[in-house]
Amino acid sequence: MTSTAKKAKEATAEAASTGAEVKTTMQVVKSEPEAEAKQPETPKPTVQELKGQICDRFNLVEKHDQLSGQLADLKNFEANITNDARVRIENGSGRSFSSADPAAVRRQIEYCRQSIEAQIKEVENLIFA
Q1: DSSP class of residue 99?
Q2: Whole-prediction pTM value?
Q3: What's the pLDDT band for 84 if we cut at 50, 70, 90?
Q4: Pseudo-torsion of CA 40, 44, 50, 56, nearest 10°?
Q5: Cβ atoms of residues 6 and 22 within 8 Å
Q6: How many other β-carbons are positioned within 10 Å of the β-carbon of residue 99?
Q7: What are the percentages of helix, strand and coil residues in the chain, rounded to 5?
Q8: Which helix (H) or strand (E) holds 90?
């Protein structure tokens, strides 16, 4: 017998000996399984939306391939660089500046590599987004 049932029995016996009226109530508690958390249904994309996503990913992959090729070319150039390498900068109007300074050539190569690597990371983030 549970302690609650014993207390109820003792209270009934005491009330009966004194002639008092005893009212007892019982409560049945059922444990219900917790309701599973329902996730809101996401609407299925349309065919046009899927085509757009595929096209966007394809373009990003092409851009990634192009940038990866540029980076490979730059690394190949850097590996085979000689002391007679030159840097040439030209603007849209045809004016240009060139330098054969080895430090300037190395700095330009490093700048190009950092720029291309940053663009590759950006494209990769967009591909996996």
Answers
A1: E
A2: 0.61
A3: confident
A4: -10
A5: no
A6: 14
A7: 60, 5, 35
A8: strand 87-90
